[in-house]
């Protein structure tokens, strides 16, 4: 029996529950972005840059920046293709991709974040960019890591369930140099 003895109440509730199980979010069920994204190969490239995506060559320099609160960070950026990137106007839009972005050094994990929804900027030809990501480093001084290898890793999953990932090796450099 349904609510107040009405057996018909169970059917809509069950239908809504099953629909939720079939799609990770409502955006994935009816998002035209999934169809448009499928026309491009899924790709991910890691770069740097605080105000725009800047390509980061394998083994290239990545600046250790002193932040306004006295800590240190690097700027990470991503260029992805073949993903649905949501509307881009609302940070809480369930259509925004989920991003994991990390920075490792010779001693292991130095910073980053896991599974945060991020807004990407369209870049044409099925590409979108995320730039200016502040990846806070767990260090006391840049001297601890300058001149050593940095390993940046990213994984991006869109609302359609497509996942791309990348890894880029770089060299920590001091912003003062």
Mean pLDDT: 85
Helical/strand content category: mainly beta
Q: What's the total number of strands?
A: 10
Low-confidence runs of at least 5 consecutive residues: 6-30
What is the rounded distance between the termini? 74 Å
- CATH topology heading of the largest domain: Immunoglobulin-like
Question: What's the SSE pattern?
Answer: HHHEEEEEEEEEE
Q: What proportion of the residues form beta strands (DSSP E)?
A: 35-45%
Query: In the CATH hierarchy, what is the class of the largest domain?
Result: Mainly Beta
Q: Based on the structure given, which CATH architecture of the largest domain is correct?
A: Sandwich
> If helices are DSSP runs of H or I spanning 4 or more residues, what is the number of helices?
3
Spatial shape:
elongated
Question: What percentage of residues falls in helices of 4 or more residues?
Answer: 10-25%
Total of domains: 2
Largest β sheet strand count, sense and barrel closure: 10 strands, mixed
Radius of gyration of CA atoms, rounded to a whole number: 20 Å
């Amino acid at each position: 029996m349904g609510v107040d003895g009405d057996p018909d109440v169970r059917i809509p509730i069950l239908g809504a529950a099953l629909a939720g199980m079939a799609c990770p979010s409502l955006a994935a069920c009816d998002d035209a972005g999934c169809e448009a994204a499928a026309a491009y190969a899924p790709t991910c490239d890691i770069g740097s840059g605080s105000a725009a995506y800047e390509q980061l060559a394998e083994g290239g320099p990545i600046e250790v920046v002193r932040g306004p609160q006295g800590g240190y960070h690097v700027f990470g950026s991503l260029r992805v293709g073949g993903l649905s990137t949501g509307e881009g106007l609302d940070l809480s839009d369930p259509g925004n991709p989920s991003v994991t972005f990390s920075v490792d050094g010779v001693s292991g994990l130095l910073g980053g974040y896991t599974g945060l929804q991020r807004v990407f900027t369209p870049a044409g030809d099925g590409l979108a960019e995320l730039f200016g990501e502040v990846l806070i480093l767990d260090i006391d001084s840049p001297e601890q890591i300058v001149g050593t290898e940095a390993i940046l890793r990213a994984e991006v999953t869109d609302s359609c369930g497509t996942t791309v990932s990348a890894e880029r090796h770089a060299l920590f450099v001091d912003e003062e140099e």
